[in-house]
Protein backbone atom coordinates (compact mmCIF):
# COMPACT_ATOMS: atom_id res chain seq x y z
CA UNK A 1 0.00 0.00 0.00
CA UNK A 2 1.36 3.44 -0.98
CA UNK A 3 1.54 6.32 1.48
CA UNK A 4 -1.00 8.28 -0.58
CA UNK A 5 -3.52 5.46 -0.10
CA UNK A 6 -3.40 5.81 3.67
CA UNK A 7 -6.06 7.51 5.76
CA UNK A 8 -4.74 10.56 7.68
CA UNK A 9 -4.42 8.63 10.95
CA UNK A 10 -2.48 5.84 9.19
CA UNK A 11 -0.23 8.39 7.42
CA UNK A 12 0.38 10.09 10.77
CA UNK A 13 1.43 6.77 12.29
CA UNK A 14 3.75 6.03 9.34
CA UNK A 15 5.38 9.46 9.60
CA UNK A 16 5.85 8.97 13.36
CA UNK A 17 7.67 5.68 12.62
CA UNK A 18 10.14 7.35 10.29
CA UNK A 19 10.51 10.98 11.36
CA UNK A 20 10.60 13.35 14.29
CA UNK A 21 9.04 16.79 13.93
CA UNK A 22 10.16 19.87 15.88
CA UNK A 23 7.18 22.28 15.94
CA UNK A 24 9.40 25.22 16.95
CA UNK A 25 11.81 24.94 14.00
CA UNK A 26 9.53 23.13 11.55
CA UNK A 27 12.23 20.54 10.85
CA UNK A 28 11.62 16.87 10.20
CA UNK A 29 14.51 14.55 10.98
CA UNK A 30 14.99 10.90 10.12
CA UNK A 31 14.73 8.35 12.92
CA UNK A 32 16.05 5.54 10.74
CA UNK A 33 18.62 5.26 7.98
CA UNK A 34 16.86 5.53 4.60
CA UNK A 35 18.81 6.04 1.39
CA UNK A 36 20.74 9.29 1.86
CA UNK A 37 18.82 10.05 5.04
CA UNK A 38 20.71 9.11 8.18
CA UNK A 39 19.27 9.22 11.71
CA UNK A 40 19.16 12.81 12.97
CA UNK A 41 19.60 14.30 9.50
CA UNK A 42 17.03 16.81 8.19
CA UNK A 43 14.56 15.02 5.93
CA UNK A 44 13.75 16.07 2.38
CA UNK A 45 14.83 19.10 0.40
CA UNK A 46 13.50 22.46 -0.68
CA UNK A 47 12.09 22.05 -4.20
CA UNK A 48 12.20 24.69 -6.93
CA UNK A 49 8.68 25.69 -5.84
CA UNK A 50 10.08 26.75 -2.45
CA UNK A 51 8.25 24.01 -0.54
CA UNK A 52 10.15 21.40 1.48
CA UNK A 53 9.31 17.94 0.19
CA UNK A 54 10.01 14.57 1.77
CA UNK A 55 10.03 11.27 -0.10
CA UNK A 56 8.40 8.43 1.81
CA UNK A 57 7.58 4.99 0.42
CA UNK A 58 8.13 6.23 -3.14
CA UNK A 59 5.78 9.21 -2.72
CA UNK A 60 6.86 12.86 -2.48
CA UNK A 61 4.96 14.64 0.30
CA UNK A 62 4.82 18.31 1.27
CA UNK A 63 6.42 18.88 4.67
CA UNK A 64 4.03 21.67 5.70
CA UNK A 65 1.05 19.33 5.28
CA UNK A 66 2.84 16.63 7.28
CA UNK A 67 3.66 19.16 10.04
CA UNK A 68 0.01 20.17 10.28
CA UNK A 69 -1.07 16.52 10.35
CA UNK A 70 1.46 15.58 13.03
CA UNK A 71 0.43 18.49 15.27
CA UNK A 72 -3.34 18.65 14.78
CA UNK A 73 -4.10 15.02 13.79
CA UNK A 74 -6.16 16.30 10.85
CA UNK A 75 -5.40 17.23 7.27
CA UNK A 76 -7.32 20.22 5.86
CA UNK A 77 -7.78 20.78 2.13
CA UNK A 78 -5.02 23.43 2.21
CA UNK A 79 -2.34 24.51 4.66
CA UNK A 80 -1.23 28.15 4.46
CA UNK A 81 2.14 29.65 5.47
CA UNK A 82 1.16 32.80 7.40
CA UNK A 83 4.47 34.56 6.65
CA UNK A 84 4.46 33.55 2.97
CA UNK A 85 7.76 31.64 3.36
CA UNK A 86 7.06 28.24 1.82
CA UNK A 87 9.94 26.53 3.60
CA UNK A 88 9.06 27.81 7.11
CA UNK A 89 7.21 24.84 8.57
CA UNK A 90 7.19 25.94 12.21
CA UNK A 91 3.70 25.12 13.47
CA UNK A 92 2.98 28.75 14.51
CA UNK A 93 3.39 29.65 10.83
CA UNK A 94 0.94 27.04 9.52
CA UNK A 95 -2.84 27.33 9.44
CA UNK A 96 -5.76 25.59 7.76
CA UNK A 97 -7.00 27.47 4.71
CA UNK A 98 -9.45 27.37 1.87
CA UNK A 99 -8.34 27.95 -1.71
CA UNK A 100 -9.66 31.51 -1.45
CA UNK A 101 -7.92 32.38 1.85
CA UNK A 102 -4.69 30.75 0.67
CA UNK A 103 -4.78 32.89 -2.48
CA UNK A 104 -5.46 35.99 -0.36
CA UNK A 105 -2.13 35.44 1.40
CA UNK A 106 -0.09 35.24 -1.81
CA UNK A 107 2.63 37.77 -2.48
CA UNK A 108 2.58 40.34 -5.26
CA UNK A 109 2.78 38.47 -8.60
CA UNK A 110 5.97 38.99 -10.64
CA UNK A 111 3.99 40.15 -13.66
CA UNK A 112 2.29 42.95 -11.67
CA UNK A 113 3.28 46.35 -13.07
CA UNK A 114 1.41 48.66 -10.66
CA UNK A 115 3.49 47.66 -7.64
CA UNK A 116 0.35 46.88 -5.63
CA UNK A 117 -1.65 43.69 -5.20
CA UNK A 118 -5.13 43.88 -6.73
CA UNK A 119 -4.31 47.00 -8.77
CA UNK A 120 -3.96 47.32 -12.54
CA UNK A 121 -3.70 50.20 -15.01
CA UNK A 122 -6.64 50.71 -17.40
CA UNK A 123 -5.19 52.51 -20.41
CA UNK A 124 -8.49 53.52 -22.04
CA UNK A 125 -9.66 55.23 -18.83
CA UNK A 126 -6.32 56.57 -17.70
CA UNK A 127 -7.02 55.21 -14.22
CA UNK A 128 -6.03 52.40 -11.88
CA UNK A 129 -8.55 49.63 -11.31
CA UNK A 130 -8.81 47.90 -7.96
CA UNK A 131 -10.33 44.42 -7.85
CA UNK A 132 -10.36 41.46 -5.49
CA UNK A 133 -11.20 37.80 -6.07
CA UNK A 134 -13.40 36.17 -3.41
CA UNK A 135 -14.45 32.52 -3.72
CA UNK A 136 -13.61 32.56 -7.44
CA UNK A 137 -15.63 35.73 -8.13
CA UNK A 138 -13.95 39.02 -9.07
CA UNK A 139 -15.33 42.06 -7.27
CA UNK A 140 -14.57 45.48 -8.74
CA UNK A 141 -13.45 48.06 -6.19
CA UNK A 142 -13.61 50.99 -8.57
CA UNK A 143 -11.27 53.10 -10.67
CA UNK A 144 -8.86 55.54 -9.08
CA UNK A 145 -6.60 58.34 -10.26
CA UNK A 146 -3.67 57.17 -8.10
CA UNK A 147 -2.31 53.65 -7.65
CA UNK A 148 -2.08 54.24 -3.89
CA UNK A 149 -5.83 54.97 -3.69
CA UNK A 150 -6.60 51.75 -5.55
CA UNK A 151 -4.20 49.85 -3.29
CA UNK A 152 -5.96 51.25 -0.22
CA UNK A 153 -9.33 50.09 -1.60
CA UNK A 154 -7.88 46.61 -2.18
CA UNK A 155 -6.34 46.48 1.33
CA UNK A 156 -9.65 47.44 2.96
CA UNK A 157 -11.55 44.81 0.96
CA UNK A 158 -8.90 42.15 1.69
CA UNK A 159 -9.17 42.76 5.43
CA UNK A 160 -12.97 42.64 5.21
CA UNK A 161 -13.12 39.39 3.20
CA UNK A 162 -10.05 37.53 4.46
CA UNK A 163 -9.24 38.90 7.93
CA UNK A 164 -5.96 37.45 9.19
CA UNK A 165 -5.24 35.91 5.76
CA UNK A 166 -5.23 39.29 4.00
CA UNK A 167 -1.95 40.32 2.42
CA UNK A 168 -2.02 43.70 0.74
Fold and architecture overview:
There is one protein chain. The chain is 26% helix and 28% strand. With 168 residues, the protein is α+β, with helices and mostly antiparallel strands. The model has no long low-confidence stretch (mean pLDDT 92).
Number of domains: 2
Query: How many H/I helical runs?
Result: 4
Q: Might you state the CATH topology name of the largest domain?
A: Homing Intron 3 (I-Ppo) Encoded Endonuclease, Chain A
The share of residues in extended strands comes to 25-35%
- Order of H and E elements: HEEEEEHEEHEEEH
- What is the terminal-to-terminal distance? 44 Å
Estimate the global geometry from the Cα principal axes. Answer: elongated
Question: Could you name the CATH class of the largest domain?
Answer: Alpha Beta
Share in helix: 25-40%
Number of strands: 10
Helix-strand makeup class: alpha+beta
Oligomer: single chain
| Spatial order of strands in the largest sheet | 3-4-5
Poorly predicted runs: none
Task: State the major sheet.
Answer: 3 strands, antiparallel
Mean pLDDT: 92
Rg on CA atoms, Å? 20 Å
User: Architecture of the largest domain in CATH?
Assistant: Alpha-Beta Complex
Layout: helices, strands, pairs:
Layout (H helix, E strand, L loop, with lengths): L7 H11 E4 L4 E4 L14 E2 L5 E5 L2 E4 H10 L5 E4 L12 E4 L1 H6 L14 E4 L4 E8 L2 E8 L2 H16 L6
Antiparallel strand pairs: 1-2, 3-4, 4-5, 6-7, 8-9, 9-10
Amino acid sequence: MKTTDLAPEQLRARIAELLTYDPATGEFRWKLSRGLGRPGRIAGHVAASGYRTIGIDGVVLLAHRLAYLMTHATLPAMVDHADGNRSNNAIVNLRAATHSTNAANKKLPRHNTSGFKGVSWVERLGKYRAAIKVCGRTISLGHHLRAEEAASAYADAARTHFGEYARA
